[in-house]
Amino acid sequence: MTLVLAADPTLADFGKDPLWITIVKAVMLFAFLMLGILFGVWFERKLISRMQHRYGPNRAGKFGLLQSVADGLKMGLKEDLFPNTVDKVLYLLAPVIMVVPAFLAFSIVPFAPMVNLFGVQTPLQLVDLPVAVLFMLAMGAVSVYGVVLAGWSSRSPYALLGGLRSAAQVVSYEIAMGLSFVAIFVFAGTLSTSEIVKAQEQTWFAVLLIPSFLIYVICMFGEAARIPFDLPEGEGELVGGFQTEYSSSLKFALIMMGEYLHTFTATGIAVTLFLGGWRAPFPISLWEGANTGYWPVLWFLIKFILTFSFIIWVRASLPRVRYDQLMSLGWKVLIPVNLAWILLVAAVRNVVVGEGDTMLGVGLGVLIVIGALAIWMRFDTVNQRRKEDKKAEIEAEFEELSNDPTAGGFPVPPLDLPHYHGVQHKEIPSGTN
Amino acid sequence: MSPWLPILMAVPVVGAIVVALLPKGSDKLAKQVTLLVSLLVLVLTGVMAAGFNPGGERFQFRAEYNWIPSFGVKFGVGVDGVALVLIALSVVLVPIVVLASWHDADGVKTADGTLITPKRSVKTYFSLLLVLETMMIGVFAATDIFLFYVFFEAMLIPMYFMIGSYGGAQRSYAAVKFLLYSLFGGLLMLVAVIGLYVVGGSKTFMFPELIGVIQDPAMQKWLFAGFFIAFAIKAPLWPVHTWLPDAAAQAPAGAAVLLVGVLDKVGTFGMLRFCLELFPDAAKAFTMPIVVLAIISIVYGAIVAIGQTDMKRLIAYTSISHFGFIVLGVFAMSDIASSGAALYMVNHGFATGALFLAAGFLIARRGSPFIGDYGGVQKVAPLLAGFFLVAGLAGLSLPGLSSFVSEFMVMIGTYSSTAHGSGALSVAAIISAVAVVLAAVYILWMVQRVLNGPTAEPVKAFKDLNAREVWVLAPLVALIIGFGFFPKPLLDVINPSVQHTLTNVHVPTSTIAEKGTGQ
Amino acid sequence: MNSIPAPTIEYGTLAPLLVVFGAAVIGVLVEAFAPRYLRKSIHVPLTLLSLFGAFALVLVQVLRGQVSTVASAMGAVAVDGPALFIWGVILVLSFVCVLLINDEGHFVASAAAVPGSADEEEAEAEGSGGHTEVYPLVLFAVGGMLLFPASHDLLMMFVALEVMSLPLYLLCGLARRRRLLSQEASMKYFLLGAFSSAFFLYGIAMIYGFAGTVSLPGINQALASNAQLDPLLMLGFSLVGVGLLFKIGAAPFHAWKPDVYQGAPTPITALMASGTLVAAIGAVLRVFWVGLGNLDWNWRPAIWGVAALTMIVGSILAITQTEIKRMLAYSSIAHAGFLLVGVMATFGTAEQNAVSLKAILFYLAVYGITTVGAFAVVTLVRDPGGEAGHLSRWAGLGKRAPMLAGVFAFFLLAFAGIPLTSGFFGKYAVFAAALNSGTQPGDSMGGWMAGLVVVGVVASAIAAFFYVRVIVLMFFSEPAADGPAIAVPSAGTVAVIAVSLLVTVGVGLYPESVLGIANDAARSLFIR
Amino acid sequence: MTTHYLVLSGLLFAIGALGVLIRRNAIVVFMCVELMLNACNLAFVTFSRQVGNLEGQVIAFFVMVVAAAEVVVGLAIIVTIFRTRRSASVDDANLLKY
Amino acid sequence: MDLYVPILVLAVLAGGFAIFSVAIAPFTGPKRWNRAKLDAYECGIEPTPQPVGGGRFPLKYMITAMLFIVFDIEIIFLYPWAVSFAPETDDVGRTIFSGLGLFGLVEMLLFIITVLVAYAYVWRRKGLDWD
């Protein structure tokens, strides 16, 4: 099987590399991510500037390409502040905790199928696990520790609040994100990323499972704390949030890197799980060789960059949401919709694949949809509150009007004006005028 | 299957329920109903007893119903001679006690109007009394050991409330002491009862079927100990007697009569029937220590009684002495001694009952139980004094009064008992005779201090016995004198059943052959 | 790869469980959707009906002779004779407790609000007789209680243990009066309970390591085939034992009981003292009998010690108590000891097993109902600040409220095991079973069993002292001038007391009524 | 191999148990209990590998659920008591003594 | 176990990098001591004294954390179900349900409904509102 280059790797193909290949792959991945960050920061700034009719970085190097390098050097040369009150160990540990899992999370993203790497047949993917997606989620969760610890160890109200907000946000969106994967597993029957990519041979899951994909995209922003969900930093409200006390030294650089890596991971996962991974898109896939050798790396990178650009585009377009809006979107919309969707998918799958249970399956599907709708309608507190507000508004207006009929309307002369009621007009004492 | 005993037991319960359910304020009616019910029971018992055939089979009027098949427990009742006379004793005493405690719960007032005990619920008192009557009948009639145990323990509760709620100043202490002593003994007995069932392996609690099932001597000793300790506490034997003086002194007079007159008899009755027959070998093995305890009780009770200043405590201590005699008689294991012991149970009930009641009437008049507060009652209330004297004399076993017969039988029987080897118990008999002298001291001294001498000031206001009180004491005195001269009817009933017992104990036949009525 | 077969589930057999859990879930929905003023009037019938329905379903299974002889739900739940009996008992007890819970004024309107705060005032104002969450919580707890003794594997047992305990932790903290006490009780119960369930769980892990399975019969088989003394096994069983003994409140794991009983709202205390104990003893039996059948020579001496200690500690410490609920808690500890005597007796032949099982089942039934009755009486004796807990306040109650005091005295006598009450027969049954087991051929602990019974007897005598002390206090002491008020009991409370009294008296006079059923249930033994 | 995991699990369990016994802050005590549960999980998973069936892993799942439920209930209780008396020390909870 | 070796290698790389960065930072920059600079940043006002051992977390976050745990556990149960529920291809190439099938669907329906009941309760009790 390994002889055929085109063969899609499965779980069985992992764990067989010699150690040196493993090290080579790890170093390559590390380098890719490091370079990616440098390039990504530049790319983001440049793209946003263009969208805002600015030039963006253009001094350091050609097209400002070395801007990120310069920034990094600057940070390294800044004074490394160490505020008085901090909890020293955790304060130092927090950036490390943030950045290491962020690297690890990317290790399960497949770049290409079997390739010939220095004479060894190996999948171009650092590793694949039977629980790959869970591993990714776990790494994401570990990073939250970094955030909370950074906030907490700083002993500063802003930092603490920022850390907590960040943690609450990330965990909230993690649920919705985790749920959005379930539909994929119902189709793919595995948690291994390489096999999920294989399962998208025919159709991308983004097409097949549009709601899941949409939810994932929303969660992606929440999970990576990108605008419009970048509340942990919330410069306007929290002067930088959990990283307030990290001045601008290398520690801060690590935090920044961690966040960027999260964005990358989110993007990589989107590509892998929903957008067919390294598979060539439709017209190209007609070409037999498109999915062999190192070509898939190209497709992967194209998809990756496009998705990343989308994230930047959103950043350029949308304002930051309010915290309660963020939370209620996560808890009240994404989760129930997700659950209903999962059941619907399962029911439909049951109907399509199952034998004999069709009617029952259909019935169940309908039931689930109706139930979800009913719950949705009943729980639509936003709507409800809007109605109540409206009602209250009308009532208040009515009240106001009944007290003061002239309020808010055209100036109406008082009814007791002398010229309306000639008989009752006031006496004007003489000599006063 | 004879319905007699179940009916006898049911009547008082029904009566108790009726009394308890009477509307508020019908105290008088409650008393009358109670009296009627107890008299009815008395009549029924009389009729039943008339049908008892002393020469017939051992247990008569038997009735058996399945009660708890899961445990192999039956509601089994039946009476032999001893049980019959004890039931008779109970049902005779109850109406007397009802009459005697006619005003006990109304709030006892002295002649000068001070309240000794406050007003309490009359209905409760009398329904408790009737419940107690059922249990007294049940405990003697039970042929199922489990049933016996149930009544043995359950009997405590009404008595506990009668002492605790209607007694004297120290009543709650006395009641708790009484209950805990008895309960503890009872629990040990429970273990033994279970042991009997388990070890015997006969899957029944019916007494006749359990005779002889325990053969293992060690097991016999353990189980015997369980039963004996319970009975020793119940029939207060030194050194576990201490609850009795307190309980008897604090209980209202009527309850005290039942407590000492009937409840404690359950202990000696149990020794005679269960300890001896179920565990003959153990009983023989333990005879000597038990006899020693009995002797100590006899002498100790008598000596301590002399020192008492409180009439009721004094009577209680005399009872301890008398119970020593009964235990001695039981364990002498000769037919004379054992018959005497059985007879003693009845006679002691009458004698002590009369003494307690007479003392109770005195106390009700004076408001004090202390002997020193009295004097010269003879002149003020001759009738009361007369009854008190007769009762006292019965207590010291004056020849011609009923106690004498039984005490004499016990001493003779013990002296001549050969069950443990010839003359083994003669020393015991001789020592016990000393107690007769002591008895004369304590009784006569008390009688003298109370009845004779200068009339104390408060005593002058004493009224003599009214009709009710005469009705209380007269039957008892009549019985004391009657059985003193003519104990044969009782002995005729008792003897065959004692014979059965001794046969089951396997005492040498020589003592059985030497029959005698003692008179 | 996807080789998980769809399991089969015997819905009919499990119906009582499902009804209770279903009703609990509906109860949560009622909490969520029904307007506040309506909630109680929905909850109460729902709760009572579901408990009654579950009981009826149990009855149906029994009456139709459909007591299953194999474990249900893929070997997870064993609905055998004893389990059905225990279910019946728990359902009756919880039904009665719900009647008690239904009474106004036991539960705070808003547990989360700080006592005396504006929040609480507001909640009180709009409340309809306290926390209505109580009902679903009670149903969940009851569901756990049902599942606990019927679990056929240790995992299910652990889950049931938690399902039973978690709602109870919360319920303990909901007392309306003496909030701090109540919350403290709740916290103590929670911390200690969680601690003990961690032990239980670690024990399960060890046993799993030894046997490779957590199913009780599987463990027993592993024991049979592997006779050597495995340290894993020993550790496992001692840890599991600790967890279980904690739940029944056996010494030395009893420390939580007085605190929690005192602090919890009295109806909840009643539920814990009856239902939880019944369920926990059932689970103990199942673990020791089904899971450890082949290892009894190892666990019996340990249980011997625990039983003896429990009886003695419960009885002696009860004497020093001045609080009525604490006293009843220690009494409950002592009774747990008596029950353990019965557990000890489940050794030897099948016949002996049945005898002991019958004894325990009977004991559980009669003790449970008497306990509920006693706590129901406790709820009625009130001071201005809540229930009159201190014993001195009970002085002279016999004069102020003769009926109530009489009933309570009767319950106390039943606890003490005076003949002609149900308690006596319970105690008798257990002791008889224990002595009987001592005569089993080949039992090395024959003499020990007799010794245990003697310890039990001594403990009962000591225990009788403190029961009698309360009676003395009520009947033989003069009432205080400002004695506690006797609340006018609601119909529910009256019914509770009446039922408890009737059962206690009725069984005391004719124990065969319950014994017969227990006998039938015990004869089928646990599914092994 | 699995012995190491078992030793670790035992250590964690012991640390948790010790913590419950000697720590005074209710939340810390509670965390120690959670630590004990996690030690159990580790033991289950290890044994699952050792005995070669999946039961242990399934149990670990259930334990997680139970632990989660316990967290929810426990924190609710502790927070409530904390709000009422402004202290989470177990020592301050001393009303229930006789 | 081998599967985790690459992750370990990457972790060593990343960890080495991160620790190196943190460790090197104090030496690369200048040192200019200033008391105010080392205070906690609070927009120029005197820093609020923070209690030793960390401040208190607002209760609101605690609730979020609890809810998160509950739902995260739900996800843990959903994943194995989803994987088992997925149909597979048999030897002939047909897609079939080999295992759970309808039973799995119904069970999961019940499970999710149960969770939703609790969810509905929390929602109605304003547990999800952030004010």
TrEMBL record, chain A:
Catalytic activity: a quinone + NADH + 5 H(+)(in) = a quinol + NAD(+) + 4 H(+)(out)
Pfam families from the UniProt entry: NADHdh
Predominant location: membrane
InterPro entries: NADH_UbQ_OxRdtase_su1/FPO, NADH_UbQ_OxRdtase_su1_CS
Keywords per UniProt: Cell membrane, Membrane, NAD, Oxidoreductase, Quinone, Translocase, Transmembrane, Transmembrane helix, Ubiquinone
Molecular function, one GO term: NADH dehydrogenase (quinone) (non-electrogenic) activity
Enzyme class: translocase
Coiled-coil parts of chain: none
Location(s) in or outside the cell: Cell membrane; Membrane
Function: NDH-1 shuttles electrons from NADH, via FMN and iron-sulfur (Fe-S) centers, to quinones in the respiratory chain. The immediate electron acceptor for the enzyme in this species is believed to be ubiquinone. Couples the redox reaction to proton translocation (for every two electrons transferred, four hydrogen ions are translocated across the cytoplasmic membrane), and thus conserves the redox energy in a proton gradient. This subunit may bind ubiquinone.
Homology family: Belongs to the complex I subunit 1 family.
Entries under NCBIfam families matching the protein: PRK06076.1-2 (NF004741), PRK06076.1-4 (NF004743)
Record's protein name: NADH-quinone oxidoreductase subunit H
Gene: nuoH
UniProtKB/TrEMBL annotation, chain B:
Membrane-topology descriptor: Multi-pass membrane protein
Domain NADH:quinone oxidoreductase/Mrp antiporter transmembrane: 142-419
A Pfam family: Proton_antipo_M
Molecular-function annotations in GO: NADH dehydrogenase (quinone) (non-electrogenic) activity
Protein's cellular compartments: Endomembrane system; Membrane
Record EC number: 1.6.5.9
Subcellular location, principal: membrane
Transmembrane stretches, start-end: 6-23, 35-55, 75-102, 122-140, 146-166, 178-199, 219-240, 252-274, 286-307, 314-333, 345-364, 384-405, 425-447, 468-486
Protein name per UniProt: NADH-quinone oxidoreductase subunit M
Broad EC category: oxidoreductase
Keywords carried by this UniProt record: Membrane, Oxidoreductase, Transmembrane, Transmembrane helix
Family: Belongs to the complex I subunit 4 family.
Origin superkingdom: Bacteria
Automatic annotation (TrEMBL), chain C:
Chief localization: membrane
Keyword Transport: yes
Catalytic reaction annotation: a quinone + NADH + 5 H(+)(in) = a quinol + NAD(+) + 4 H(+)(out)
Topology versus the membrane: Multi-pass membrane protein
E.C. code: 7.1.1.-
Locations listed in the record: Cell membrane; Endomembrane system; Membrane
Keyword Membrane in record: yes
Domain annotation NADH:quinone oxidoreductase/Mrp antiporter transmembrane: ranges: 151-438
Coiled-coil annotated spans: none
UniProt entry keywords in alphabetical sequence: Cell membrane, Membrane, NAD, Quinone, Translocase, Transmembrane, Transmembrane helix, Transport
InterPro entries on file: NADH-Q_OxRdtase_suN/2, ND/Mrp_TM
EC class of the enzyme, as a word: translocase
Regions that span the bilayer: 12-34, 46-63, 83-101, 157-177, 189-211, 231-256, 268-289, 301-320, 327-348, 360-381, 402-425, 445-476, 488-510
PANTHER family xref list: NADH DEHYDROGENASE
Entry's family note: Belongs to the complex I subunit 2 family.
Assembly and oligomerization: NDH-1 is composed of 14 different subunits. Subunits NuoA, H, J, K, L, M, N constitute the membrane sector of the complex.
Role according to the record: NDH-1 shuttles electrons from NADH, via FMN and iron-sulfur (Fe-S) centers, to quinones in the respiratory chain. The immediate electron acceptor for the enzyme in this species is believed to be a menaquinone. Couples the redox reaction to proton translocation (for every two electrons transferred, four hydrogen ions are translocated across the cytoplasmic membrane), and thus conserves the redox energy in a proton gradient.
Protein name stated in the entry: NADH-quinone oxidoreductase subunit N
Provenance organism: Nonomuraea purpurea
Gene transcribed to yield this protein: nuoN
TrEMBL record, chain E:
Record carries keyword Glycoprotein: no
Subcellular location field: Cell membrane; Membrane
Reactions that this protein is recorded to catalyse: a quinone + NADH + 5 H(+)(in) = a quinol + NAD(+) + 4 H(+)(out)
GO MF entries: NADH dehydrogenase (quinone) (non-electrogenic) activity
A family per Pfam: Oxidored_q4
Keywords for the protein's UniProt record, in alphabetical order: Cell membrane, Membrane, NAD, Oxidoreductase, Quinone, Translocase, Transmembrane, Transmembrane helix, Transport
Primary localization class, coarse: membrane
Membrane topology label: Multi-pass membrane protein
Entry keyword Transport: yes
EC number: 7.1.1.-
Function statement: NDH-1 shuttles electrons from NADH, via FMN and iron-sulfur (Fe-S) centers, to quinones in the respiratory chain. The immediate electron acceptor for the enzyme in this species is believed to be a menaquinone. Couples the redox reaction to proton translocation (for every two electrons transferred, four hydrogen ions are translocated across the cytoplasmic membrane), and thus conserves the redox energy in a proton gradient.
UniProt subunit comment: NDH-1 is composed of 14 different subunits. Subunits NuoA, H, J, K, L, M, N constitute the membrane sector of the complex.
Protein family per UniProt: Belongs to the complex I subunit 3 family.
Protein name, entry field: NADH-quinone oxidoreductase subunit A
Gene it is expressed from: nuoA
